[in-house]
Design brief:
This protein has a five-stranded mixed sheet with strand order 5-4-3-7-6. It has two domains: 75 residues, Orthogonal Bundle (Helix Hairpins), CATH 1.10.287.180; 70 residues, Chitinase A, domain 3 (Roll), CATH 3.10.50.30. The longest helix is centred in the middle third of the chain and has 25 residues. Helix 1 packs parallel to helix 2, helix 1 packs antiparallel against helix 3 and helix 2 packs antiparallel against helix 3. The protein is built from five helices and seven strands, in the order E-H-H-H-E-E-E-H-E-H-E-E. It is 40% helix and 23% strand. 18% of the residues are buried. A hairpin with a 4-residue loop joins strand 3 and strand 4. It is α/β, with parallel strands linked by helices. The radius of gyration is 21 Å and the shape is elongated.
Length: 163
């Protein structure tokens, strides 16, 4: 597994994902299976809306189960080793958009962290995340916006994230 394949998670996020996986492979899977069986007992499956809805829900549930398993197998708890002033996964970053003299603070983390964070979360794989990852306080980084324009930011502060 390469460093790019790793998703860094807080212990809280990891536990939450494990609990979701257990619920989806246990109670939810059983409930969906029962609904499919009941709908199947109603007869003609071609025009059985309940059957088709349950099968669709089953497919979505199983897709999420696969996604959760992959995520949990390829995740690490905590943050990678980095210097105190170095931008890395799981740190709170304050930047200044040089052109606009406007500051923004965000957590550099995964989508799974974003669901429960009290701060804006940017992915390390986003254009901004990629531009600042590995940089240090005082560094400037330039990245390309979706419209093709370039944006330069200056890293003002790097702090550990606390939930």
């Amino acid at each position: 597994m390469t460093a790019e394949d790793v998703t860094w998670l807080t212990q809280e996020a990891f536990d939450r994902l494990e609990a979701e996986l257990a619920e989806r492979t246990g109670a939810r899977r059983s409930e969906i299976t029962k609904r499919i069986e009941l709908a199947r007992d109603e007869g003609d499956l071609k025009e059985n809306g309940g059957y088709h809805a349950a099968k669709e829900e089953q497919g979505k549930n199983e897709a999420r189960v696969r996604q959760l398993r992959h995520l949990l197998e390829n995740s690490r708890i905590g943050v990678p080793d980095a210097a105190v002033d170095e931008v890395s996964h799981g740190k709170v970053i304050t930047i200044r958009f040089v052109e606009f003299d406007d500051d923004e603070t965000f957590l550099l983390g995964s989508r799974e962290e974003a669901a429960h964070a009290s701060i804006e979360v940017y992915s390390p794989t986003s254009p901004l995340g990629q531009a600042v990852l590995g940089r240090h306080v005082g560094d400037e980084a330039t990245y390309t916006l979706t419209n093709g324009n370039q944006m330069t930011v200056k890293i003002l502060k790097v702090e550990p994230y606390s939930t």
